[in-house]
Model the fold of this input.
Amino acid sequence: MHLDWLEDFLTLAEERNFSRAAQRRNITQPAFGRRIRSLEQWVGATLFTRTTAGTALSPAGETFLGYVQVSVRDLYRARTSALEVADQTGAVLTVAATHALSFSFFPHWIVEHAPHEPINLKSDSLQACERMMQRGEASFLLSHHHQLLQTSLDTRDFLRVEIGSDLLVPICQPDGAGQPRWTLDQAEVPYLAYSPESGLGRILHADWAARGVKPPLATVLQSRLAAALLSMAIDGAGVAWVPLSLASSALAAGKITYAADETYRTEIAITLARPTTSLSKISEALWSVACGN
Done:
């Protein structure tokens, strides 16, 4: 049995599609299929069922998944910890952060809390950052979080602390008089939306559903990047919901304006997550500071 097989299994369990999973693993689909079959032979059970609707975990696969997620993460974490112990002087703080917070929040926060430590920042979508954490490729995840949206890290294997707050606010380009080009009391508004892998998009729609908010939107563009949606809003492509921490400079400069009142704003937390397993000395020191100790 090879570690690559377990990585393949986790990827297919997430994608539920052989073609997409093989593409993510950078191998051909036939080779990927052979590795999945090899893993099933090693386990002695069918892990996936193939249907016309796609690929699903079998009951055995569901059980296997829970163990593999923990095992693969712990293997990578064990390797990282061993390397850190072998060379504490060369230890680096590895932080996975969502794109929006990488630009707006992380730079000043890390300078304030770990000004003298070497940093390895890995910026990506929430979904990709969660995979990094599950595989032990980062010690911390900096992301937006909302109580209505459970993530793959909201388990007993991870800890989370709130270190700030933010707002998702609807913004758009102003007209010549400084008023919003679109308002949410119109019949239909062009919507600059988040793509499915974006945590901010999932938070936004979970909050709308909970509060019964139904803005009159027609999607004209999707992106996983809040910065890309902000740029399109500045160019007049439609209305976007972006973190206030990211939009504040453009708002102050008059490049954008609010498209609606506070009814359409979503309060979100800024959190730092870590695994429950022990980290390096400098990582534990940062966690202690983040918790206010």
Summary: Residues 57 and 251 are 47 Å apart (CA to CA). The longest strand covers residues 158-172.
